[in-house]
Pectate lyase superfamily protein
Amino acid sequence: MADNSSKLRTFENGEPVDRDPVPYMGGVLPLVPIVRQGQVVPAGDVLSSAAVLSGVVGPDADWAIPATATHAVIPPLTASRTWALPDVDAYPRSQDLVITDEEKYLGGAYTITLVPLAGSGDAIRDYPNGIVMQDAGTTVRLRRSLISNTWALSSAKTSLQTAPETSPSVVRDLLATVREMRSPRSFGAVGDGVADDTAAIQAFFDWLAAGNVGRDYRGGRYRLTAPIRGYAWNCYKFTGAGIGVTVFICDFNGYDKAVLNLSHPTNPAENTRPKAHTLSDFSIEMSGKVTQPPCNIEERYATDLFAARIYVSHWTPFLGRGTAVRISNAYNCVINEFKVWGAGCSRLSRVVTPTTRFTIAAGTQTLTASEACFTSADVNRGIQLFDGSRLEYFVIYGVTNSTTATVNRNAYQSFSSSTGCFEGVKCNIGAGSNTLYITGQFQTSDVGRAVYIPGAGATTFRGNRPPLRAIITSISSDRRSATLNRTAGNSVDNRYLVISPAFELYGESATGDYGSNDIIIDRLHAEGNAGVPVLAGYGNNIYFDRLKTHGNNLEYIGGTFGAVEHVSLCNLCLFNGEVTIGDGSLIEGAIVNGSGQIWAHAAITVTIGSTIGIGWAGTPFIYLNDTGANATVKWGNREIGTPYSPDLPLQVNDGAGGFIQHVGTFTDSGFNLPRNGNNFLAPLKPNGTLQASAVRVSSYYDFSYGYGLRVSPEQGPTSEGGNNFWSNGTAKLITVSYDGNFDAVNIYTPGGQRSAPIITLRSNGSAGVNTQAPGATWDVNGSLRAQGAATVGETAAQYPTGLIVSESTHASGSKRAGIKLGSEWQLLQDSAGSGAKDFAVYSGTLNRNVLAIAPNGIASFSDGVNAGGPLSVRGISTLDQQGGYTRLKDGSGTSNAINLGGEADKTNYYNNNSHYFQDRGGSANYAIISSSGFVSLGKIRPAAFTVTTVPSGTAGDIIYVSNARKVGEGAGAGTGVIAYYSNNNWRRLSDDSPVAA
């Protein structure tokens, strides 16, 4: 058999025998059939599309990637470059083309843009304008698509891509994207609460300031030993892992410093306002070593600050606490779900030993201390006693010695060995001076604190003089005075000092010309503060929604912070400008400061929505500036209650430095006053005079538990025997005063008629009605009783025209009771001082049942008595014939009336046994009644009935039965008969038969 095929002979070891095998295989293999995926293809096609390993480092230039390259590495760049891909139809189908930034040269300003080879007709699927590589470490993997002239991203890629765009799209490396979302740990923070993370956190905020978004994923406790600068000209956002999860721990001192300072570091001003900062979900706390806690967050000239779910704490083992949040001249800011714990300090050093206890008996004004305590500086200082369940507030009126003082009023209840709490200090400063004097003592560590001095502002602000805000720069050696960084624009004396509010929204200018605008603060919770928790100054459109406060003053005597709740809250809120406190606000805390819980100082409008307050005691709730004429406070419905104080009346105090501004208006839509309150409102009297219109009420005051209106007594002008506390022309309405031997309440007419009250109510139960405006009337629904006192030398001129009801022994020895019109008694008057009383009616007709005469009394009426109803006579009745007609007459024609009683001697009343009934003129007799019977001179008509309606009868009764049958009339045709009652039946006279119809 012929063998026409090519043969390759080999030795036993496989080596070729006849020819060189390589040229032979090169010619034979391309023709060898190979089965791939069910198809027979030449081996040459398989070899030509096989992968080739070939890598190259690209140039720092625009470049075309070689067709033989499978791996192109990006070099250091000096400019952005464009690299062209190979002709895709000449590229192996099974080979990926990889372009990578292995050394991470990208990430800066320069990029690599991948585009199809010019003139090839190729395209990159989904990226018609090319792919931009810009992140450090980015890798792009491409493959030849089954569609002709098309590059596609490889399924083995490790990059993230953006959606197709008309401009060059960006492929983002997954790891680079993760690295972009950086946290404090990305910059080396440890977060264990021990390591110093200051440098790492500062680097983190520097990175945020470039306009980035950062988040703390794991959380941590980051210890800081220096302030963090968070100012940025760019907008940025930081989100923590949550309150108590991401915690920045302050471990440095300085009231003038801030843990997180978002202000310009060197020149905070209008033209260096930071851009929008969005901060949320973290805490800032103090370490246990901090004695002068810095501000937790500060942003001066804030714009578009958005802060939410942030907890800031100033609680330290030391009593030195300052401002937790300082924001100035803010525009368009929203603060939501913000908790401030601790902070605030309106008190200053008041040295009293913790073992000192106080005693006062109910109804007395003597307060004693168990240890040396009182000094002359305590005069006019408030003190609050607390026995674990009850509170009562006093003002020290005088100091007898170091253990005895006199308070301003009698105690409502007794306190024995109780703890006590002094109120905040008072201060004074002169106009043009920057030296501040106080009644207490500063601490040397108070340098750097902000103070507020009421009424000491540099200039008036919208008709009001604002408080002076200044910073303490130094303390005197005796610690009784401090030097401020600003001078006062007005002299003030004996004013309460506010120092380091917990949450402060203030104006930078000393004149108050600049302030905050369009601020929403929702769900701010300020608790555990030792002074003013919220201060909003120099602003407009400031809205507090769901504000909740609960304050305590640590300046107590005895006990611990946790054991003494609601001890003292000095100035709950200080507001200037136009401020709104929204519905649902909860305001807690007892106060021991004359500036009140809400200090609406120099405010244009303060609007307070539905509010709940608990634990109020001490001085008034609202304090409004004494010099402004434009301030208005508006308050919606609220519920007020406190479990510690004995009552909650409306109180008007007359002491200097009082508490409610009278100039302007105070409107109210009604509130409930439950049990256990204390002073609620009090007027301001800085110069000892009352202003006009202290309180305007648009609805009602509801004293739910029987309490009343308590008004401090005033003496009135000297023209009325007083001490000129009131100026002439001022109308008083109600006063409480001492009248003779009794306490009295006097009610006056408004409009200046103050010479005598309308009504005087005395503590012995008596009531007096004095002068009343002409033409006025008294409507009495019920009974009116008047009891006059004996008067010597009384004259008729002392009784004005009108109603007089009196039982007084007068100069004439007589008594009077009745109505006096003009100069005469018109109704009743007695004529003698003793014996029978002959009261006479002088004119008119007595036609009402209006008079009751005591037993044995006689009333004489000149014109008869008209009785519109039944006339009941108890006793003897005498009927005269005056007028010519008699109604009832005896038979003899005498004037004696019939005896209707049971007298034995009948001749006292009539003299015969016959009585006649006559006509009106007495000329005709109608009937005669005598012992022999009754004679009618006219007809007699008995009552008419029917057979079915006849009444029960008694033998001898006579009636007329209208339908009874006469003899001979048929049934149902009766025409009536006279019937008499006999033998248990009504019978007709004709035949004695029972009547029938």
